[in-house]
Amino acid sequence: MGVIACIGLISVFAYLFAPDASKNANQMHLSIHSKPPGFQVQMLTIPSGIETEQNFFSKLFLGSNNTDTEIPIQSYSLKNGVLHYVEYASDGLQGIEKQIELSRFPDSNFNDYIENRSFVFGTDKYGRDYLSRVLIGSRISFFIGFVAVFISLIVGLLMGSLAGYYGGKVDAFIMWVINITWSIPTLLLVIAITLALGKGFWQVFIAVGLTMWVEVARVVRGQIISAKEMQYVTAARALGYNDYRIITKHILPNVFGPLIVISAANFAAAILIESGLSFLGIGAQPPMASWGAMIKDHYNYIILGKPYLALIPGFCIMLLVMAFMLVGNALRDALDVKT
């Protein structure tokens, strides 16, 4: 629970923790691509002079609209009122020397625009801060669990309740739909729904949720079949309550235990499915950060001597999935009266 709470807090306030608070942490510096963790470089920021109006909440949850130009440099000097700087070059090469007028900086104070920047997780193949991408990428992996579980609960509760309570032809038809849906491999069904809805952020959330309702429906159906024969349901019928009230007020509150357990497992499954879709390129689209997409972009670096570029997001996925699975197991033990 502590791990889930920590990752949840980071995902909500990702731009507050990320060193690169620009939108999607998409500040590219190709000259410092694929640098190892702990890499440091001098960074020159050239103001664009463009005023961008953005409120506090937009910056906090959507990132800053950064229009300034950032240039990694090796050295700089001031000559005759002109700032001369040498661009950063890898492998011991000498970068290109360029110059810029001091008038480009407010009050000609260029010192405030040169800083030593440290990249804790290094940089990716586009020279973006990898720590920032990992932090912001946690949003998709974390929130897809909530959205997918919410959709699966709505559809699963509706279908399972109807099948279990009314039985007969209604039950036979719904079970036929469930069996057809369950016979299709989950990943292929998600891909089909995603392609039908289009590539994008919310499309993946909806697609994953629409494939996870069958487990919920089967559990609800089984629980309602056993619960509808209980005496409190018979008493509710004798008092003249309608079917909607009996199902929602009397039966469902008594079958929430198994639903909580299966929802925790569905959280973990949704995270894995989204990571797989992003790895295949049909999940969240660039430049949006996603752990699965980060593995896809850097899996070939495993044999190029920089495996951390793929292992870091992979470890994050493993940690979050394991946390949800452990919580699900704990809830199962706590809510199982036989145990």
UniProtKB/TrEMBL annotation:
Stretches that traverse the bilayer: 142-166, 173-195, 201-220, 251-273, 308-331
Main location, first listed in the record: membrane
Sorted UniProt keywords: Cell membrane, Membrane, Signal, Transmembrane, Transmembrane helix, Transport
Xref: Gene3D superfamilies: MetI-like
Domain of life, source organism: Bacteria
Topology in the lipid bilayer: Multi-pass membrane protein
Localization (cell): Cell membrane
Ranges of residues in domain ABC transmembrane type-1: 138-328
Endpoints of the signal sequence: 1-18
PANTHER family from the UniProt entry: D,D-DIPEPTIDE TRANSPORT SYSTEM PERMEASE PROTEIN DDPC-RELATED, OLIGOPEPTIDE TRANSPORT SYSTEM PERMEASE PROTEIN APPC
Family: Belongs to the binding-protein-dependent transport system permease family.
Protein name as it appears in the record: ABC transmembrane type-1 domain-containing protein
Taxonomic lineage of the native organism: Bacteria, Pseudomonadati, Bacteroidota, Flavobacteriia, Flavobacteriales
